[in-house]
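Dear support,

Our group has been running a series of protein-ligand predictions, and this particular one with copper (II) ion is the one our PI (initials K.S.) wants archived with full inputs and outputs. We had some confusion internally about which version of the output was final, so please treat the block below as the authoritative record. The input we submitted was:
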Amino acid sequence: MATTPKFAVEDRFARVAILFSFVMLALGSLFGLVQALTRFPGLLHALGLDKVITPELYYTGLTLHGVANAILFTAFFIMGLAVFVVTRDMNINLHGPLLRLACMMAIGGTLVAAVPILLGQATVLYTFYPPLNANVLFYLGLAVVVVASWIFAAVVFHGIYRWKKANPDKEIPLGVWGVITTLVIWLYATPPLAYEVLFLLVPMSLAGMPVDVLEARLWFWYFGHPLVYFWLLPAVTLWYTLLPRVLGTEVFSKTMAKVAFVLYMIFSTPVGLHHQYVDPGVHPVFKYLHATLTYFVAVPSFLTAFNLIATLERAGRARGGKGLFGWVTALPWFKDPVFTGLALAIIIFGTGGFSGVINASFQINYVVHNTMWIPGHFHTTVGSGVALSFLTASLVLIPLLYGRQIVSMKTVKAAFVLWFVGIMLFSVGGYLSGLAGEPRRTYAPPYLNGVQVTAHLLDLMKSAASVAMSGALMFWLGGALFLGTLFFSVLFGKRVAFEGEVKISPEPGPASWFEKNLKLILIVGVVLILISYSLPAIEVYSQGLSPAPPQGPLK
Amino acid sequence: MTVHREEKIWAFFVLGLTVVFLAALAYAAWGLGLTTPYTVERIPAQKAAQELKPGVDCVNPNVKQIVNNVVVCQDGRYYVNVLAMRFTWLPNRIVLTDPKEVKFRITSTDVIHGFEIAGTNVNVMVFPGYIAEITWKVPSNMAPGNYLIICNEYCGAGHQNMYAILEIRK
Ligand code: HEM
Ligand SMILES: [Cu+2]
Ligand SMILES: [Cu+2]
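Confirmed final output from the archive:
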């Protein structure tokens, strides 16, 4: 192995977690292909695939796609990355046995949840809204993964705490700021999820207990929105640290980077009601409160955009770029694949961010809620801004962790380009067909063929959907090419020896205001959550619950 | 701890933009009356079919007729009760003649559904146990014809079959 013996345990954890995450991505993406194909009912029929890709397979696959790609791929990669960043940037060891326990529990829980999904007994999609009912193993498996993540977070915080004790006057490295804020968001967000799963869904599944839909959704979305920032922050961390590194420059403003992390951290949880704008039973004033906080969580993204563009400009000018835009062409667009991947991910995420601000609008949400607009939006954010950044980071991590060279940078670059063009087609097609009213999460609906309705919307729906799904096929190919290269490299890549230290963050300076006031910042986060959630919770509980009995999805 | 001057300008610009957006949303919501759906009426899911009452306030003598859960008022206002059940909408064909304003009251007998009229801003979640109420101000240029009512929240293996037709006559 190429890694230093000092981090033998930590690196083994990172290797297992990252490899497992890519296996999940491969599995989940397989069903992305199935989903894209079902949006071509004519093609499906012509190929005779409508006998193979049944609605049952489609919905089971959609469940797997969401759980494997959005939850498991992200969570495992983030755990591996966090361990790598913290051990290298702080030069510390973590609690080995607990780390191993967390790893085994997370993988064990995943396998337990996978069994009912694959048997078609948990076809409740990754949002598992009650009273749709799944086999209890699905809920328990996911609960074990969550508990494992708590153990993991405790291990990492313990390490950071010890470092801080030993270095009270030193600044926390920027990458570790990313790790801390990511894990704090996770800890803010998961307790209500645990409550929903253990006290509502498990009794529903085991004993047929009726569940109040509004109560369950309130706690699910309390978790559901911070989840997306849990995905995003590690990607932002990579942009702030890896991008300046490959360009041989410093991030334009370390201070504003920390401001962004802190704002993300405190504003990402109290906004979940923006997923419930069109739910009955929650007062518009509370929805508006969450809309307000949602707009504030866009602020750190705007700050990040400025900071990154300024960093790029500096790097471009250092490479001799002149004039207003000369620095853009001076950047190593296709010379350095790490730059290519991160830059494309940032551009894609930028477009996704704008559609996010649109979704957050209190009123426009009517038009886009639950339409294809939404997959168009989140494939540019998590499905790309995040996923593509992780794939790119693996170009750096694989040689360091597995001691193998990436076998072909040509296929990597080709994969990135396919991914970029594909995802752009997918999102634009999704936006347009969504505006025409095409629903998401729907297997080839019969009204697309033959039902007489006022026509032009249906035509737009159909043609925009074909654009979207051609894009999906394209970026699926890009993903397959990339993952193929990656797996091949891990197994057969040329061995590389590695010596010396690796750090991803810039050299830390003296402790700043943020290090000294971390506790205060954490408390502000909790207070915001208490304000924004106590009001709707009082409303939901005080009006009395109205539980509905469970229903299996496949009868 | 350095913050460049450009960054300060940008930060204030972004904050100002945010405040303008929020003011626009608040004005649209409470100035123009475009808020999000809101009801707290509850109804037992299993008895929803019997207990869903039309939310009529244009009582006699204003009521022109009642057909199939649809109450018609003199002045182009309609009250429509809709029941969602896997995998159909009841009624699954709604005919409205020159509607000006339609109030939908919708609930579900089983799981969560989504009530969407494609190409309009009618889009509301439908829960078992709760009545969703939404008032639709019909645009005056709405062309006569058949419109699609879609279920846009996954509700089980036949979800894709769950649609209905809204016919607008002039
Ligand atoms: C690799 C190629 C991929 C393809 C071809 C693909 C395709 C799709 C399609 C077509 C849908 C919409 C299904 C529908 O509404 O009918 C979908 C949903 C979704 N995708 Fe992807 N996707 C890919 C990768 C990803 C990645 C990398 C992520 C996240 C990291 C992701 C997360 C999701 C989620 C969360 C949903 C929503 C599931 C639900 O609504 O229950 N996808 N995907
Ligand atoms: Cu439905
Ligand atoms: Cu449905």
